[in-house]
Amino acid sequence: NAVAVAFEVDLVVPTALRPLLESHLQIMQERQDPRLSEARFRFLARSAPDEIRELLATEGYFTPRIEQSVSAIDTGWRARVTVEPGEASRIASVKLEFQGAFAEDAGTYGERSATMRRAWPLRSGMVFQDALWADGKAKLIRELHSKSYPAARIVESLAEVDPDQHSVSLHVVTDSGPAFRFGGLEITGIQALPEQ
Q1: End-to-end CA distance of the chain, in Å?
Q2: What would the pLDDT profile of 101-113 be if each residue is shown by its tens digit?
């Protein structure tokens, strides 16, 4: 009768970041899997720092210090992962540019582009968050699509990180494409149907 080997993970991380790492790290997902082997556990522990760097970057932490180790314990194996996220990077600048027919429409461009800029979710001084970055770009395109520009697209998207300054400069360029407008509605062919 074989005794099951235990695989424990000791994650030392600031409380605010624990849910992010616990819910996404592969080693956390697999630690309770009865098919988990020592070799796989060691591999997951070695892979954890790279996974953590990617996850922390989505929350604005681009210079973390991460240490990991694996040791034998009485019941199996324990991985210890220590994370010091470093200073969160903040938005240094935001540049939103508009091209295409939207930018050429002198009658509405000024007011509508100002409204879109005010609605942009990442402002100077805020901590960079990848979810807000993606959401902001999606909102720009949705707004253009809803206002006569269904061919609108992002032609340039850059989040330039300066890890030494803990800052991020954002630059987005949209191209609205041409304006699409519906003309008057004209129905033809009804005279060919019999009256009833």
Answers
A1: 85
A2: 999 988 889 899 9
